[in-house]
């Protein structure tokens, strides 16, 4: 245990930087971010950035594949998931593994889980899942846990280590309260506190969960009621990365040593907060759809605390 | 088709036993889900009224009132009905999108 305290970054600076970040992530199809000591630097648009040689460990994030979705916003969500997995297969340096931040299926049907498995397994990577609210709506609420819950606690939370990084998969889609947001619950938070106890503060931490752990837009339920408690527990760590899905668009925020990032969906885009009457699927021109879907690649360079997130759209 | 008419018949039969004959169907009420909103979100009804929620979004929703009723997941155009047999205030929400809330006053 280290007693080292990490200074908070200049708040004014942080706020204006955050504004720039939000504008950029909404305006462009893919930006490479390098985070060094909690300070983000944009290295440019994905096309050029992807060419840069990644060193260290790289893992991928895919999210919100909604297998089974067939509405106008994307009548072929299976097809775009296949395209995403083909893109993953085409990455020259094989990533270490993949995380899926939930909403694997649209309606938790066995066939949807089967189809998702069949396609995602083509990536030939280990995949670490957390459930989205769409994965736990089968009548007996058992399919997700049967398939992905082995070795997990509670509703499916767990942690593991890879490449010197401690990964923690959290579940914030269970036992939601009327009028509230995403929910972790006491049991999970206690487990999290214990899981982090005694760990060296220099261990990079990655928290991943379906609904954003930070409050993105409460009017649409985009946040986690007790997410703040989880963030308290990781406060002292030098490098914390929070990866979420659910909102079907790239969004990023940095607070102190914590970087928050949400991934695109592979199925359909959702509107920017408050820009539409509801967070429902956003119908865009067919030609534009693939520029709003995609996967994220995250690279850790051991020793330098550098973390780079590359969001790559399926097209564009 | 036959399921629907049988159910309607059942409600009518119960109503006939408990209430004046004319009270049954005229008060039955619909709530629509559009754009992640229950419409109307607030409702005053008489005891014995059946309320039917219909999901018109491209995203599934549920209707849950703790300890009182809980719908299955409703995909697009699916419906759920509940007959309110006891007076009181019923607050309900969508268990998938808990910011969606509504309330029904039964008198």
List its traits.
heterodimer; A: 316 residues; alpha/beta; Purple Acid Phosphatase, chain A, domain 2; 7-stranded mixed sheet; 8 helices; 13 strands; 23% helix; disordered N terminus; B: 107 residues; Immunoglobulin-like; 4-stranded mixed sheet; 3-stranded mixed sheet; 1 helix; 16% helix; 37% strand; globular; Amicyanin (chain B); signal (chain B); ET_Amicyanin (chain B); Cupredoxin (chain B)
Please describe what this structure looks like.
The complex is a heterodimer of chains A (316) and B (107). Chain A has one domain: Purple Acid Phosphatase, chain A, domain 2. Chain A contains eight helices and 13 strands. In chain A, the strands form two sheets. In chain A, strands 2-1-13-12-3-4-5 form a seven-stranded mixed beta sheet. A six-stranded mixed beta sheet of chain A has the order 6-7-8-9-11-10. In chain A, helix 3 runs parallel beside helix 4. Chain A starts with 10 loop residues before the first helix and ends with a strand. The N terminus of chain A is likely disordered. Chain B has one domain: Cupredoxins -  blue copper proteins (Immunoglobulin-like, Sandwich), CATH 2.60.40. Helix content of chain B is 16%, strand content 37%. In chain B, the strands form three sheets. A four-stranded mixed beta sheet of chain B has the order 2-1-4-7, with no helix packed on it. Chain B has a three-stranded mixed beta sheet with strand order 3-9-8, with no helix packed on it. In chain B, strands 5-6 form a two-stranded antiparallel ribbon. At the A-B interface, loops of A face strand 8 of B.
């Amino acid at each position: 245990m280290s007693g080292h305290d990490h200074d908070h970054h200049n708040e004014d600076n942080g706020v204006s930087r955050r504004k720039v970040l939000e504008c950029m992530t909404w305006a462009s199809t893919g930006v490479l971010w390098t985070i060094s000591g909690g300070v983000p630097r944009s290295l440019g648009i994905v096309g050029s950035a992807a060419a840069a040689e990644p060193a260290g460990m790289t893992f991928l994030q895919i999210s919100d594949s909604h297998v089974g979705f067939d509405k106008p916003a994307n009548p072929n969500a299976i097809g775009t998931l296949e395209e995403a997995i083909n893109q993953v297969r085409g990455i020259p340096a094989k990533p270490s593994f993949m995380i899926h931040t939930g909403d694997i299926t649209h309606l938790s049907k066995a066939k949807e889980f089967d189809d998702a498995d069949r396609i995602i397994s083509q990536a030939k990577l280990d995949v670490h899942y957390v459930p989205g609210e769409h994965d736990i709506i089968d009548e007996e609420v058992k399919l997700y846990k049967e398939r992905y819950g082995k070795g997990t606690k509670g509703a499916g939370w767990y942690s593991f280590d890879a490449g010197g990084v401690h990964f923690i998969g959290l579940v914030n889609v269970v036992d939601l309260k009327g009028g509230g947001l995403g929910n972790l619950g006491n049991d999970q938070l206690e487990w999290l506190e214990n899981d982090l106890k005694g760990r060296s503060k220099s261990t990079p931490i990655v928290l991943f969960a379906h609904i954003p752990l930070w409050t993105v837009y409460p009017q649409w339920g985009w946040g986690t009621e007790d997410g703040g408690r989880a963030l308290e527990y990781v406060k002292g760590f030098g490098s914390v990365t929070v990866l979420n899905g659910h909102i079907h668009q790239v969004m990023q925020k940095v607070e102190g040593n914590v970087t928050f990032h949400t991934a695109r969906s592979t199925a359909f885009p959702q509107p920017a907060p408050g820009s539409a009457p509801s967070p429902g699927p956003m119908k865009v021109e067919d030609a534009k759809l693939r520029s709003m879907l995609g996967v994220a690649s995250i690279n850790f360079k051991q020793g330098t605390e550098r973390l780079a997130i590359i969001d790559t759209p399926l097209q564009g | 088709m036959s399921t629907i008419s049988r159910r309607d018949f059942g409600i009518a039969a119960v109503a006939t036993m408990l209430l004046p004959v004319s009270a049954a169907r005229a008060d039955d009420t619909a709530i629509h889900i559009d754009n992640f909103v229950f419409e109307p979100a607030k409702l005053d009804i008489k005891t014995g009224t059946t309320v039917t929620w219909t999901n018109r979004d491209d995203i599934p929703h549920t209707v849950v009132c703790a300890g009182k009723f809980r719908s299955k997941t409703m995909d697009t155009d699916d419906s759920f009905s509940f007959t309110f047999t006891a007076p009181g205030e019923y607050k309900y929400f969508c268990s998938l999108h808990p910011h969606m809330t509504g309330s029904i006053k039964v008198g």
